[in-house]
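Hey team,

Filing this mostly as a record. A colleague (T.K.) asked me to run one chain through the structure pipeline before their review meeting, and I want the input and output archived in the tracker in case anyone asks later how it was produced. No errors, nothing strange. Just documentation.

Input sequence:
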Amino acid sequence: MSLMSKLSATILVSSLSLFGATDAQVTDFLKKQIGDNKNVSNLNVTVSSRAAVKELKGWESVIVNLTARVKQGTEERNIEQQMIYFVHGDFITKEMNNVKTGHPLSSTVSPKFKAEFYTKENLVYGNAGAKHKVAIFSDPLCPFCRTFVPEAVSYMKKYPNDFAVYYYHFPLPALHPAAVTLTKAAIAAEQKGIHGKILELYKVEINAREMDEKKILSAFNKTVGTSITVEDIHTPAVEKEFARDKSIAAKVMVQGTPTMFFDGEKDAGKNKYKEVKVK
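Output structure:
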C-alpha cells in the first residue's frame, strides 16, 4: 500500500457521514483530512470520474487524482496517484469487500482505457480497425499469466478482424525480478524487427527470483532464437518503451496481472472475448 493510501485509509475509518458527496464536497473533504497531516504539503485533489456501482444501489465509485509532497523521515518526495472511493448520500469510504467472496469492490473499478493508449507499438495481433480492442497487462513470470495469456491470445489471434490485441508489459519486480529483464529483452527484440514473439516469453524457463541479467538473457535467447545482449536492453529506446507501458498501467490503475480491458472497460472476469461471436 502506498503512503498516500495509508494516510487516506486511516482518516476514513472513523466518522464518514459528514456531507452530501458532490465532487466539490469529496475534494474539500479529502483536502482537509489529508492536508491536516503535517507530513503532507502542496496537496491537490480532483475527481476524474464517477460511475454507479452495479452491486450496490445508490452507491457510486469515484476515482480521485491526488498529488502532494510527502515527507518521510528526513526526505521529501512528490506523490502522484489515483485512488478509488465509494460514496452514497452523506457517506464515503475507501473500500468495501464482498463477505462471501472476499473480493474488494475496488477490483471492479477502473478509469476508461483511452484511445490514445492503443499505440502501434502495443498492437501485437489483429487489425487496428478490428471490431473489438483488447488490452492485456501481463508479467511473463506470473504463474496465472503463463497459462491464461497464451491461451487467450492464441484464440484471439485467429480472428484478426474481430480482435485487435494490445499487449502491455507489466513485470512485478518485487515478486519476479527476472521478469524485468525478460520484458526489456522482448522490447529490444521487437525494436530490432523481430516481431510476433510475445507468446515465446511465456515459454522461457528461468527462476523468477534470478537477478543475473546474462543468465536471464541466455534463457530468453535460447527460447526465442535471438541474440539480445545486456547492452541491448539498456538503450534509451528500450527504457522509454518500458517506461511508457508502466505509465499507461498507472493511468488505468493496473495493480496486478493479468489485467484486461475490453473495448475500453476493465474486464474483471477476463472472459468477454469468449462472448464474441467470431466470424
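Quick notes for T.K.: The chain is about 30% helix and 25% strand. The helical segments are 3-11, 23-35, 143-156, 178-191, 213-224, 236-251.
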